[in-house]
Give the backbone structure.
Amino acid sequence: MSCDTNDEIRASLHDHLAAWGLRHVESDAAYFAWQRDVFTLQELANLHRHIDAKRQAADGPAAEIAFYDLTAQPRSIPALYSQRYEYYCEVGARVARHLAGAPTMLDVGCGIGILTTFYAKRCPESTVVGIDRSPASIELARRRAKELELNNVRFECCDVEQRDLAGRFDLIIATHTLLQAEQDPGVPSRDWRTFERSADAQAQQRFEQRTGVGIRLDRLLTGLTSHGRMVVFEKTRQPARRIPFQRALADRGLRLLAAPEPVRYRSIEEVTDDGPLYLLGLGVPEEGWPWDEAPEADGMPPLDLESLHAVPAQGEQPLYDNHECSAQQVWMSLSGKQVTSQITCEEPDGRQLHVEWGRAGEWNYLYCANTFDQRQFVLIEPARAAVLENYYREITCDQLRRGNEPAP
Ligand SMILES: C[S@@+](CC[C@H](N)C(=O)[O-])C[C@H]1O[C@@H](n2cnc3c(N)ncnc32)[C@H](O)[C@@H]1O
């Protein structure tokens, strides 16, 4: 493995993706036109049926396997997988920085092997294994590895939940594999005023069981050498998913070897905030970086009530509008706050919701917070106070219908 620069890694990744027929598409219009060129309307309808079935996951892993089998047809690859072009660039380049010094590596949930073959190409001295439970994905991965003349990579079809790993690995890579339950909201905070999660072993266990992350991690750890490392990247940017995921890693003795790296990329036009990427190893608890359970800094400007006089009204825009975690800080530090009306209630899915409407000095504000980390703080000038009041009533009417009383 050579000591390549990041630019060199990225350049070779672009070449690699081109060899798979993938290309960078800038606009949704161009991308969907490409899909319509490649697939018939029936094929697209079938694809969407599979996506819905996978999302509902009513019959265990069968719907997910069927989806990945369907998308692993050679003719579908460029048009379908180019949607993830930036994902491959951002994630593949970051993982590639951690491959050095690993004679054996495992890419778990490798799919059709787009990134696995890249890692194998970069590390000709290493033995690389890719495993996945989609038979069609594995068949295609094997075929492409042969076409790319890679002799140091092999692919096996197996479900990582079903048995311990067959070998021992110096590096285990899991990207978008361990926490695939995208609809799972995670674990709620103690109440709407905080982002903190209690040390609730049962809630943690339920999260690990229903998402499958617990058994997957346990199986993977059977194959990690004592000095081995893991690179893990899942959809866990919200504290509700990130905190129980981090606790699942930490409870199994995994330590952070570097600061977690949040990753932003576009899926065609849509900006996705993903990750973070974790570099992990087994070690004594005091070693490594501390696990951070605080919400991310979100870059929203703090609220300065005094300076609002200078802000000209802009169409329908509020004077200040913050939908990020920092909205809580803004609400907490609000001086001269007078609450006009508020309600705290439980939603049908168990999340606690608080909505509050009132005045801060001469301005009117609305604050919403729930136990799945959503926050919203809006401030508006007196002339448009009715907009906020109506919004508050809309929300509270919903709650009143469910039998929750607002507090004066
Ligand atoms: C979103 S794809 C990610 C593919 C690849 N890791 C990447 O980063 O592009 C998830 C893959 O994980 C595989 N997978 C999910 N659960 C699995 C399990 N329990 N055992 C093996 N493979 C699994 C799926 O079949 C699918 O190919």
In short: The radius of gyration is 24 Å.
